[in-house]
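retry 2 of 3: previous attempt timed out while embedding D-malate. Reduced batch size to 1 and resubmitted. Inputs unchanged:
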Amino acid sequence: MPRFQLTDDRANMRWNGMDQGTGPTLLLVHGFPLDHTMWVGQIEELAETHRVIAPDLRGFGASTVTAGTVTMEQMADDLACLLDALEMRDPVTFCGLSMGGYIAWQFFQRHRAKVARLILCDTRAEADTDQAAAIRRETAERVVAEGPGFVADAMIDKLFAPSTHSEHPERIQATRDTILNTVPDGIAAAARGMAQRSDATKMLPEIDVPTLVVCGRHDAISTVDEMRQIADAIPAARFVEISAAGHMAPLENPDEVNRAIRSFLDADKARS
Ligand code: MLT
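retry 2 succeeded.
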């Protein structure tokens, strides 16, 4: 798959990721604490009809790591700079999973002109409770002191549906390896950023672009009920539940997720 690596002076970072295909742009934004490889089931196939850009966010994969706190606003601004650096003139379909969805809310608010459509996979609109935010800040301290092993142990069971554990252990191992290979400062900075993210619930009725909301049936982090409520609150949203999948639906059941994305993009193309 074609890889891109570029230095972006405005974002003050070096980007790594995939840029494949031609056509309308689909920007794939990964979750925490992962990298662009979580979209392995989407990039090749969706690049048949789209230019698919799947970057590693600040702090992850082979992109620049920034210590301290990296907010969801900063990640959104980074992505706006990336689209400019890639000379992307037309608005894009922004597809984010979980933390990628938290970034989507900010991207929509701050860079509205760059958004043609939204795809929200396994994410939440609410901010953290005080307790959840405190746990994230503790995680940030601990990962810098101890490394990412305990993060992988704590997260891996929650990320996947039972069927993925039995039928696709290699996908789980790949995700564990990604977490273990992530720089602790990058994990800590994003954890602190998520802890202070704002509540996006109130902005949902203002989303005026076609939106697809996708959720794995067994998602234990952002549940089907919660995601259905997100879709209900967005005027032009459709909701699709993905079978045999948990929080990592695009990785766990790529066929069903890709079908949902294709049908959403095709229906919207037919309307426009
Ligand atoms: C993710 O998948 O990005 C995380 O579950 C987000 C979070 O920790 O809230």
